[in-house]
Amino acid sequence: MPDEIRMIHGQLRNLERRNDHIYSVELWLMNGKVNKNGWQFHNLERFAPLFAGTPILTAYVNNGNQVGDGHNFTMKVDPKTGKRYASFTDSAAERIVGALYDDPSAIRTETDADGTEWVVGRGRLWRFYASELVDKIEHEAVQGRNMEISIEALVTDERIADGVAHEEEWTPLGTTILGDLVQPAVPGAHIAPNAAISTEQFNELKLKAASYDGEKPNKQNESRKGETAMHDETVEQIQERFNAAKADWETRESDLNSQIDNLTAQNAALSADLDAAKTRVNELTEEARNRRRAAAKNAAKAQLDKINQNREEEKKIAESEINGVLEGCESGEYDDDDDEKCAEKACAAVRSVCMEKQMEREAQEAEVRRNSAHKRYAFEDVGGESGGDPIFELCNSL
């Protein structure tokens, strides 16, 4: 069967506000019963971990005044390939507002009070980008109502029996938070407060947050102790206090300028030390690079000597044959942070060159053997029935 997209409904529960930007939720995603569309999903425990990391979406319609709707997207055709694809660029299309946690341990199966097995997942909403949605979820939860959700899944193995589509293999794609007027295909799929937080506790937390501005101080009760009236001081006393304050400021300013000069000098010294350290690091890096290249070159020559060790003198491969490898060692062609790897790269290159030269030599020897097998000499015809040159006849008679 061709792969098909299935949409299954579930339920979303809010858990906590981790901070001003992350809002944790719990989603009762799907169960194994036959839903209103005549689909039944099997192998829940096997495919449930695939929910991890999938997106949570919702749509805003009526110029953004309605939070939540259905699976809003448009099927379009790619003019280049002719393939159909789902487009989410329209203003009323659903958009990503969160995701289930990436950790597969955040996805579990749980049996409800009616004995129905559900796939349940924990996720997060990005409050900064979905403030209206989070406010609606909290409002619905306080009123004892739950927002419905719908799951989109890609079905890859389906069998039909007694009018029911049994989905044997499937992959979850995403979870959509539905609007008030959209009915779910799976009864009981919802979002609600976590059972550990009662409605009264939730309201209390809300009230505490709302009253966090605190009380403003009562101006009438502020102490006036320590105030001095201007008319109690003479002009001379004011001038004296001004001069003292001015002298104190000049002293502080001088100290501050001295500290600035010291810090400037220290900064210059540190900059010089840093430059020296950088220079030394570059020198050490260059030394290490040259050491590795020299070691690679020596390793290449040693590899050639090892290959020639048991060869006859005329069959040994000359060092000039690996000049390209030796030059590559010097230019950094085989550079590596690990000395042994650098040497091994050079040795591998030598082995490759020697193998190529050996193959060329064997091909030449084979050609010589083939030519020798078909070659005849003039003396081979001496004394034949057809006669021959007198000189060769004389040779043949000796």
Keywords:
single chain, flat, alpha+beta, 2 domains, 7-stranded mixed beta barrel, 398 residues, two-stranded antiparallel ribbon
Summarize the entry for a quick read.
The protein is α+β, with helices and mostly antiparallel strands and 398 residues long.
Main sheet: which strands, in order across?
A: 1-2-11-9-4-13-12
Helix content: 25-40%
Range of strand content: 15-25%
Rg, Cα atoms, Å: 44 Å
Instruction: Please report the number of helical segments.
Output: 7
Largest sheet at a glance?
7 strands, mixed, barrel
Distance between the termini: 94 Å
> pLDDT under 50 segments (min length 5)?
192-232
Overall 3D form: flat
The arrangement of helices and strands along the chain is EEEHEEEEEEEEHEEEHHHHH
Q: Secondary-structure map with pairings?
A:
Elements: E1 4-17, E2 22-31, E3 39-41, H1 44-47, E4 55-58, E5 60-61, E6 66-67, E7 74-77, E8 84-87, E9 95-100, E10 107-111, E11 117-126, H2 131-142, E12 148-161, E13 164-177, E14 190-191, H3 199-210, H4 235-308, H5 323-331, H6 339-374, H7 390-397
Parallel strand pairs: 1-14, 3-13, 4-13
Antiparallel strand pairs: 1-2, 1-12, 2-11, 4-9, 5-6, 7-8, 9-11, 10-11, 12-13
Describe this structure in words.
The chain is α+β, with helices and mostly antiparallel strands. It has two domains: 4-202, no CATH class; 290-398, no CATH class. Helix content is 39%, strand content 24%. The strands form three sheets. A seven-stranded mixed barrel has the order 1-2-11-9-4-13-12. The protein has a two-stranded antiparallel ribbon with strand order 5-6. Strands 7-8 form a two-stranded antiparallel ribbon. Strand 12 (148-161) and strand 13 form a beta hairpin. Mean pLDDT is 78; it is low at 192-232.
